[in-house]
């Protein structure tokens, strides 16, 4: 070894490394000292909106609410899929942000990890929030945050395509009516419907309106109702009413398909409303029908504003002020208009409707919607959901029948939540 | 991780002269020697610290994760119970294990076979040094220069069942369209095709540089003896390229085993488990749903590391043998 070190070149390289090492440690100590917050000082705020930069209205609103509470707020936007692990790691290292805005199915996971305060600790009022929207953040009678807005799924349709096939959208109130409409549309050479059946949470989110609309329950995936829902979608793909690409479609790619103007329907979310208006497409919106008739419950999407656990519990007071500022009626209206969401309180919904009457079907749809982690499913939901999207993939791709796929999913889900 | 370790050519250098063989004996030799040793240690310290912080500790954490039963709660408070090899047992008994193992082996094996033979063919082809050969060779490097997300997304557009260019070509020549990414029979083939395309430049570059080290007079002699092109390849190029080939294949193995981005972008491991490899499975367990399942994810990750390590040691052995020759 020593003879190795004698070589001049190796020595030089090592000195270089030593310098690099010193610089590295220098950097590390720099960041850690900056992390320690002053008593009042800076409050940290994480959200899943990386699309908004420092000059955006959203950042300005967050900062303004901080100023009103007498502190500076430092906002950081993360990618949605990144935020869960970031929040868990921060919780482990005891440096959670003061305020954390997360996708609603993640709330139960973070609450289960014990890194979120419930609203009784922070004295947050949730009285005005619609019950069905708030339920996604409730586990065992405790509420872990306030929704910042809600979105859900409905069917967008292309008027031109429907007219060409002689389909009247107002008659589509059940699965049978929808399937026969798809048949007529396909006969004209267009595709009937597009949706997202990808093997991620997105796929489950899009499958749920059909699953719930059949009357099935998440605790029993392979019930005959559940099988009828999966058979419905599988038949559409097999008969060519829906393109084969739905198996790999995200909601964005399925939306791009719809925008080509060659599709009758698209199962998609509230957030596409702003885009469809500028697309020049002659569109309309109907609720997703249930099996026997009427609107099916669709899952609620949207984020919850939570206050993670802090060592210094005195900070909750300020965090709560910022939270209630961001969830005031006025700010709900401006935030949810920017995000193309529906506000979670009746007062704010009315103001949104007054300014934008075409939001009406969405307000109704959000009213009928249901949280994925509701029914006290909590952290059981992600395990069930994983099996559900796998079953959908297996059935749509033809590797299993819907019944066999759901049976396998139920066995796996039951073992996972045991 | 293992790649970084094994890529250090210094590592297998045979140990130098005995450490104690210092300068000629003088009265102060002992003192001098100690100071020298201390300096040596001072110099080695940054490297050791670097290795410990960035390699040993994360590796230890990963092993620890896989031997405990972590839930999100115990991940935060750090009180996960020790369960021994239970996570590994669970992983082995999981219905996904069989398909994932099969897919990993197929993906790695078939990718390497095609990457290597195409790379070799192209290297020999470009070695003829015809006009434009360097321009064309540069063009072949394009897949290597593109960010993986760009090439994988482009492949997934091209292979789209309904609007992909590949299917419209197949349709144009009268064939039946193939559901490349969405049928259980084709999904793995589709990601292998994309991976082969991305891996060819690596093989081409290394094999081409290997070709340049073969002395030209051997070919001349062979030509005088009347050897044809085929004989030249099998009796000269191929045997003399063996050392380079071995390294190329072994590096490729380690590299292909852990391929994640291409598969994730193109199929997410689907439909169902049809294109799920160990790397994909590990990610799905750890980060795929809103409820992370860290311990089994770490167990699958460790299995991958072990497989890669085996190839890593093989690489070291081959390299040492070559150094001795």
UniProtKB/TrEMBL annotation, chain A:
Pfam families: SBP_bac_8. Keywords: Signal, Transport. PROSITE patterns: PROKAR_LIPOPROTEIN (PS51257). InterPro entries: SBP. Residues 1-28 form the signal peptide. It comes from the Bacteria. PANTHER family: MALTOSE-BINDING PERIPLASMIC PROTEIN, MALTOSE_MALTODEXTRIN-BINDING PERIPLASMIC PROTEIN. Belongs to the bacterial solute-binding protein 1 family. This is ABC transporter substrate-binding protein.
UniProtKB/TrEMBL annotation, chain B:
Keywords: Cell membrane, Membrane, Transmembrane, Transmembrane helix, Transport. Its main location: membrane. It is found in: Cell membrane. Residues 101-315 form the ABC transmembrane type-1 domain. The chain crosses the membrane at residues 38-57, 105-127, 139-158, 186-208, 244-266, 294-316. InterPro entries: MetI-like (IPR000515), MetI-like_sf (IPR035906). It is a multi-pass membrane protein. Pfam families: BPD_transp_1. Belongs to the binding-protein-dependent transport system permease family. This is Sugar ABC transporter permease.
């Amino acid at each position: 070894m020593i003879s190795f070190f004698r070589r001049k070149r190796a020595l030089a390289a090592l000195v270089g490394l030593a310098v690099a090492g010193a610089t590295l440690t220098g950097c590390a100590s720099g960041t850690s000292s900056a992390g320690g917050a002053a008593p009042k000082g800076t409050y940290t705020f994480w959200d899943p909106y990386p699309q908004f930069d420092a000059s955006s209205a959203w950042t300005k609103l967050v900062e303004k609410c901080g100023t009103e509470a007498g502190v500076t707020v430092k906002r950081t936007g993360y990618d949605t899929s990144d935020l869960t692990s970031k929040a868990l790691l921060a919780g482990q290292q005891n440096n959670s942000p003061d305020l954390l805005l997360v996708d609603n199915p993640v709330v139960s996971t973070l609450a289960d990890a014990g890194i979120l305060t419930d609203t009784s600790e922070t004295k947050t009022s949730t009285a005005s929030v619609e019950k069905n929207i708030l339920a996604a953040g409730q586990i065992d009678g405790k509420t872990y945050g306030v929704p910042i807005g809600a979105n859900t799924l409905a069917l967008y349709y292309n008027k031109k395509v429907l007219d060409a096939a002689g389909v009247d959208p107002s008659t589509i109130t059940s699965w049978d009516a929808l399937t026969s409409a798809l048949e007529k549309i396909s006969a004209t050479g267009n595709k009937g419907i597009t949706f997202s059946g990808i093997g991620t949470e997105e796929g489950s989110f899009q499958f749920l309106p059909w699953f719930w609309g059949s009357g099935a329950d998440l605790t029993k995936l392979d019930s005959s109702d559940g099988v009828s829902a999966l058979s419905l979608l599988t038949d559409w793909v097999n008969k060519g009413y829906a393109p084969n690409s739905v198996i790999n479609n995200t909601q964005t790619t399925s939306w791009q398909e719809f925008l080509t103007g060659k599709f009758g329907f698209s199962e998609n979310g509230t957030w596409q409303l702003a885009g469809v208006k500028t697309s020049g497409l002659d569109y309309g919106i109907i609720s997703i029908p249930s099996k026997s008739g009427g609107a099916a419950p669709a899952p609620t999407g949207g984020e919850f504003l939570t206050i993670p656990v802090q060592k210094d519990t005195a900070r909750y007071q300020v965090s709560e002020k910022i939270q209630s500022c961001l969830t005031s009626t006025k700010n709900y209206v401006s935030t949810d208009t920017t995000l193309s969401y529906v506000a979670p309180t009746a007062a704010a919904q009315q103001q949104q409707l007054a300014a934008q009457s075409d939001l009406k079907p969405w307000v109704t749809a959000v009213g009928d919607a249901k949280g994925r982690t509701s029914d006290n499913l909590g952290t059981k939901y992600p395990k069930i959901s994983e099996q559900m999207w796998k079953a959908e993939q297996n059935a749509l791709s033809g590797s299993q029948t819907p019944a066999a796929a759901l049976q396998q999913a139920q066995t796996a889900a039951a073992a996972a939540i045991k | 991780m293992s790649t970084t370790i094994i890529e250090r050519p210094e590592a297998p250098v045979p140990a130098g002269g005995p450490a104690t063989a210092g300068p000629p004996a003088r009265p102060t030799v002992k003192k001098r020697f100690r100071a020298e040793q201390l300096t040596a240690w001072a110099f080695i310290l940054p490297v050791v610290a670097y290795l410990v912080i960035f390699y040993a500790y994360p590796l230890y954490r990963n092993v620890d994760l896989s031997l405990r039963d972590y839930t999100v709660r115990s991940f935060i408070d750090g009180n996960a119970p020790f369960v021994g090899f239970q996570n590994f047992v669970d992983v082995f008994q999981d219905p996904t294990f069989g398909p994932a193992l099969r897919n990993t082996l197929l993906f790695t094996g078939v990718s390497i076979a095609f990457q290597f033979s195409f790379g070799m063919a192209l290297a020999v082809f470009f070695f003829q040094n015809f006009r434009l050969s360097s321009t064309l060779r540069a063009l072949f490097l394009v897949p290597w220069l593109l960010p993986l997300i760009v090439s994988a997304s482009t492949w997934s557009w091209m292979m789209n069942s309904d609007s992909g260019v590949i299917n419209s070509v197949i349709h144009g020549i009268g064939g039946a369209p193939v559901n490349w990414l969405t049928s259980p029979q084709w999904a793995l083939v589709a990601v292998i095709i994309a991976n082969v395309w991305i891996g060819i430049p690596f093989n081409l570059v290394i094999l081409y540089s290997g070709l340049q080290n073969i002395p030209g007079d051997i070919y001349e002699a062979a030509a005088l003896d009347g050897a044809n092109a085929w004989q030249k390849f099998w009796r000269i190029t191929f045997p003399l390229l063996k050392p380079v080939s071995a390294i190329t294949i072994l590096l490729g193995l380690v590299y292909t085993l852990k391929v994640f981005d291409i598969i994730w972008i193109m199929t997410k491991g689907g439909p169902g488990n049809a294109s799920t490899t160990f790397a994909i499975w590990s990610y799905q367990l750890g980060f795929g749903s809103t409820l992370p399942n860290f311990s089994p994810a770490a167990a699958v990750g460790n299995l991958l590391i072990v497989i890669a390590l085996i190839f890593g040691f093989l690489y070291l052995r081959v390299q040492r043998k070559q150094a001795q020759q």
